[in-house]
Design brief:
The chain is mainly α. About 85% of the residues lie in helices and about 0% in strands. It has helices at about 1-30, 30-35, 40, 45-75, 80-115, 120-160, 165-190, 195-220, 225-230. Helix 1 runs antiparallel to helix 8 (about 195-220) and helix 7 packs antiparallel against helix 8 (about 195-220). The chain starts with a helix and ends with a helix. About 35% of the residues are buried.
């Protein structure tokens, strides 16, 4: 029996670590110079900041794709459809992260070109830069967020059904995921911006992921549920 539960314990710990790693990478992927009003002028002078942000954003792919794939063998025993859906949304999130990195590097390239021509055709650079910046925001804060949060929503649906983790934790995740989805949709229709309201709506799922990560690392999944399913 111990051999059957050990893989689940390891998977729980690795999942918890990946959840934390994904959040840390997300924090370090923020590039203040790109979000500023004069990003076209300053981006190339802060090239290392942009490249470092791109690097950490790529690291998020490991977490966003790795978590649902790692969890699939466990969750599929309880609900194969939802488990498969979480893998699909995780992969979609990973693809959008890569697209976001490409747009970030294009903004850096645009800044280099602007530095070469100076103030000549400044309106052209501002228009193109504005489109790239808006596209990056939509990719990062709508497409990527929606895909990964939907993966987490499916996780928490299975957690709630099976009690692999305490129900209060899965209910928290369901509510937090729903509110985060709402935040992305409100941002998409320009009802809110990347402001305090957007951040506040994403706080519940962020803290739930931290608590879930700690729970998985320290206690793992409910062994009683795993044992009964194995039997």
């Amino acid at each position: 029996m111990r051999k059957s539960t050990n893989p689940f314990r390891r998977s729980a710990v690795i999942t918890g670590v990946l959840l934390i790693a994904g959040m840390v990478a997300g924090i370090f992927s923020v590039v203040p110079v790109i979000d500023g009003a004069d990003y076209i002028v300053k981006a190339f002078t802060y090239e290392n900041q942009v490249l470092l942000g791109a690097f950490f954003q790529l690291l998020m792919v490991v977490a966003y794709v790795g978590i649902p794939i790692l969890m699939y063998p466990i969750l599929s025993k309880h609900n194969k459809g939802l488990a498969l859906g979480s893998v699909a949304f995780g992969i979609i999130a990973g693809v959008f992260i890569i697209i976001g990195v490409i747009i970030l590097l294009l903004l850096l390239a645009l800044s280099h070109e602007f530095a070469k021509v100076g103030t000549l055709d400044v309106s052209y650079f501002q228009t193109l830069g504005g489109l790239l910046q808006a596209g990056r925001d939509l990719v990062n804060h709508v497409a990527t967020t929606l895909a990964f949060v939907l993966a987490m929503l499916l996780f928490n649906c299975i957690f709630y059904q099976t009690k692999l983790v305490p129900r209060w934790l899965s209910v928290w995740g369901l509510i937090g995921s729903t509110v985060s989805i709402l935040a992305s949709l409100l941002f998409m229709i320009r009802f809110i911006g990347l402001d305090a309201a957007y951040m506040m709506l994403n706080i519940p799922i962020a803290f739930q992921q931290l608590v879930l990560a700690k729970w998985l690392i320290v206690k793992g999944f409910n062994g009683t549920v795993q044992d009964s399913k194995s039997n």
